[in-house]
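Lab notebook page, bench 4
Experiment: in silico fold of construct C2
Operator: M.H.
Input chain length: 143 residues
Purpose: comparison with the prior construct
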Amino acid sequence: MADKKKEVLGGKPFDLTSLDTSEAAETGAVLDVLHPTENTPLGIKITLAGADSDVYRKTVNKNVNKRVQRMKPGQSLPFTAEEQEESGLNLLAVCTLAWEGVVVEGEVLPCTKENAKMVYQRFPWIKEQVDQFIGDRANFLSK
């Protein structure tokens, strides 16, 4: 069995740093937004922090801590569906580091947290692409 492992690894121990997504998750990777039905590039590029970034983890932890606080006796439900949607939009917005080519109603939108939340809420197909991209660690590995 040990011989088989050496054969697969070329006789060298595997160095996990080759699969470290942390740095790239911090600096971000670029999503080319695709048309929702034709699957063709629209010329919209969004730079996103990944799920292994500090901003992602801190935002998730903040949301969970908020819910835990509300679970104390006598408190209301931990969260509503609307709060869940809002926290999801907020998470994607804080992971949006930059963008280009985002035009809504003829206006070029600057990349701000508020604009990102608005775009992701108004265009759920973009939100879906952003969410999938952020969670796919392959996007944050060297190719």
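Observations: Helices lie at 2-8, 22-27, 54-69, 81-94, 113-122, 124-135. The mean pLDDT is 89.
Next step: discuss at group meeting.
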